[in-house]
Amino acid sequence: MASVLSDIPCDAARAAPADATRGQVFAQHCPSRAVLSHVTSRWGVLVLVALRKGTHRFGDLRRSLEGVSEKMLAQTLQALEADGFVQRTAYPVVPPRVEYALTPLGAEAAAHVHALVDWIETNIGTILSRGGGAPLDAL
What we know:
It is built from five helices and three strands; from the N terminus they run ααβααββα. The protein has one domain: Arc Repressor Mutant, subunit A, CATH 1.10.10.10. A hairpin with a 5-residue loop joins β2 and β3. It has a three-stranded antiparallel beta sheet. Helix content is 47%, strand content 10%. The radius of gyration is 18 Å and the shape is globular. The protein has 139 residues and is mostly helical.
């Protein structure tokens, strides 16, 4: 039986997509891989899901995402902002006030990852009963 993945071109130059604006995540140098990495990283998923509830300040996000360091949260927010998923608004006040919210594109991406998060939370009992769910520090 042939692998489904073996039928997908791994070189964007070999097979141009039917829609030139569509990415090819299986192509080694396609920028869609970087975007996929940002959206599906441990903290990327959690930031997107947290921002579905509305605008948050940096400190609020950090408190709601247990275990994230200030540096990782800042890097994650910067990557999601660069990809167009998060809007950063800085207010010229003292002390500085910065808020983060989803853009329309970010809201769409967040809905998809939220569905995955919801599925995982719903099925975690089954996953754990089958020996899955290795501790994060073991990965």
